[in-house]
Write a structure and sequence with these properties.
Helix content is 75%, strand content 3%. It is an all-alpha fold and 228 residues long. The protein has one domain. The chain has a two-stranded antiparallel sheet.
């Protein structure tokens, strides 16, 4: 069974992390526009394609994720340029895709085996995926319950559904428990999501580091036993 459909686990994770960095760090820094929305959607689709290729071992599962990615991309474009009422549905599809990818990435990172740089890259990708997944959850909530998350100034919050970069910012400041004070959850559901994300952010780092260190020590012990 091939390790990956396209590039293999090693190179696939590098491309995966590169494309994952774009929508989480780089693209949100630019003012929103129709071209920007298209670029974000396209980058998201490529992230899913490379991510599924690098983390899912079964070809049929990869094809299913790619098919869901194409459907999500089409729904996103229709919601952005034709039927804005479909934006919650498009966001839910994105959230489903990213949740699947997050699960598969973490499964590959913590599987038994030697510790490599690419496994560490997978761990970083998993951390970014957590923040990005929660950002989409916040976006679904904001689209369903406008005003659930309060930004300063108020003019920013009026258009949160069209500016996912603001929610990415909120998600990662919550994940890292930075909290600059310029945004805070108002609705009870938003507060629950924020608390859950902050806990996951702290536990993820502790559990990931402990797992990697444990696997490294186990591999070293096995090597010492094999050596005469």
């Amino acid at each position: 069974m091939p390790r990956s459909l396209f590039l293999g686990w090693d190179r696939g994770m590098v491309f995966f992390l590169a494309f994952l960095t774009l929508p989480t760090i780089i693209l949100p820094a630019f003012p929103p526009s129709q071209v920007g929305q298209l670029l974000i959607s396209l980058t998201f689709a490529l992230t899913l394609v490379f991510g599924s290729s690098a983390t899912i071992r079964h070809r049929i599962s990869v094809y299913l994720v790619i098919g869901l990615t194409v459907t999500t991309f089409a729904a996103d474009q229709i919601a952005d340029f034709v039927l804005p009422c479909l934006q919650p549905l498009a966001t839910v599809l994105k959230l489903a895709c990213l949740s699947i990818l997050l699960f598969m990435t973490l499964k590959r990172v913590v599987r038994p085996g030697r510790i490599t740089g690419y496994r560490v890259i997978g761990g970083i990708a998993g951390y970014l995926l957590i923040g990005y997944t929660w950002a989409l959850a916040y976006q679904v909530l904001q689209q369903t319950l406008p005003g659930a998350i309060h930004f300063e100034p108020d003019s920013v919050a009026d258009n949160l559904s069209r500016q996912p970069g603001n929610l990415v910012y909120f998600s990662f400041t919550t994940l890292t428990t930075v909290g600059y004070g310029d945004v805070h959850p108002v609705h009870a559901i938003a507060r629950s999501l924020a608390v859950a994300e902050a806990l996951v952010g702290q536990l993820y780092l502790a559990i990931l580091i402990a797992s990697l260190v444990g696997m490294a020590l186990q591999a070293r012990s096995a090597k010492e036993v094999e050596e005469p």
